[in-house]
Amino acid sequence: MTEYKRPIPTVTPLLEPFFKAAKEHQLVTQQCKDCGTWVQVSLQTDQCPDCWSRNLEWKTLSGKGKVFTYNVFHQPYHPGFRDEVPYNTAVIELDEGVKFLSNIVGCANEEIKVDMPVEVCFEDVNAEVSLPKFKPAG
Amino acid sequence: MSLKDKCAIVGVGYTQQGKLPGRSAMSFFVEAAANAVRDAGLKKEDIDGVLTQSGYNQNVAQFHSMEVSRLLGIAPRYTNQASVGGATCNTLVHQAAMAIEAGLANYVVCIFGDNAATGGARSPQPSVSLDVGYGQFGAAAGYGQAARRHMHLYGTTHDQLGAVATSFRKNAMDNPIATMRKPLTLEEYHNSRWVVEPFHLLDCCLVSDGGAAVVVTSAERAKNLKQTPIYIMGMGQSAPCYVPNDVGGKDPTGAKESGEEAFKMAGITQKDIDLCELYDCFTFTALVTLEDYGFCKKGEGGAFVEGGRLEIGGALPTNTAGGLLSESYMTGMLHIVEGVRQLRGTVEPERQVKDAEIALVSGNGGILASHSTTILRR
B245 and A84: CB-CB below 8 Å? Predict the structure, then answer.
């Protein structure tokens, strides 16, 4: 296996439950127990942006969704991605309605389309970090 | 109480633009400010307000506007620094007008400067975010996602994004301070390398060293100064603060609310605008701003920007100095400077918009998260 050169996300206290679940190959995000709003993981907040309740809980998602939008990076902005270009980043709209930024794997960048159905899979990076990725549903 | 026509821009200043190694960001701030004050025919002692937007480079002073004041030898009654990204420069002018009308200052200089081209990288991230772990970097990613959605929903094409780039380039060709002055064809645009697809290199703004500044005072005081006063006719702001990964749906950008506010204050409509100076961090930004200002319908911006409409001599001359794409990245302050110079009628004759009376200037920041609008008239 080749050395993992990409920057590894910092396991912040707030995202500990997210990384713990990902290690067990579960995709989780926070939902407000009072108003039901889903909170994007990358927002890194502990208060509902909708109703201001602090009563959030981590919930397991179906892992199924579709591509909302995507990019193909041709320029490496970090040395860890120098051997990876061109690579994609994609916003996945999960069936629950919440979005999650990730990478599409298992298909060429040219085959990615907006609205394409996808499902979660996991890349094990190290002992603490596994990253949810998405592959064409099938 | 409306601020319509209560204040005017009476001085504009700028420095050389481009790659200017060996100079600090601060050096551009103080030179641009001095040029603006001289242009107004004022003395240092007259200036009692200093407003700044700090640059994007690292090592920015924490008390930035005070440091700039200190280096200008000014002890202002009113000073502040602001940051709502690329929307900031217009908001500085708005804040100046509010301060003047409230009696807190008489002559306010609003300044931006940066040495982003040669002065080193932007601040490093203290920790690696989840998004960075996936390879998501820079503004091109967020705007690229929004542009991709626009293309998906409305059929906007790369030819149409390219029309923005080629039009602004054409406008820049007779501007002596523009960084990019060579002619640009649509084919050359298509052949420029991908940065973050859907954006070619020539969809992206420049990274620049330089400074720009304007002086604002009351309409009353403006009457007796050196330059033709350019009145601040309308102002608007709006910060939808979209979650970055949500941007690109059918929701309007902040241009809609901000533009409506500015048109309402000015008491005019889109038809009265002689020229636009639009924030163009990417080609797409200018296109979607035209839609949300109501110059065309939502989704029709692509067709609207084709056919030379945005060129000097076209139906809606836009970014007459070349904008962030071809002139320089002064995060919107040069857009205000250019609007003022066009309305004064003092730009190079080749690129003067004939009989220009009213100009619309926009700013936009974050990932379409903030917006500001200023309508100027002579």
Answer: no
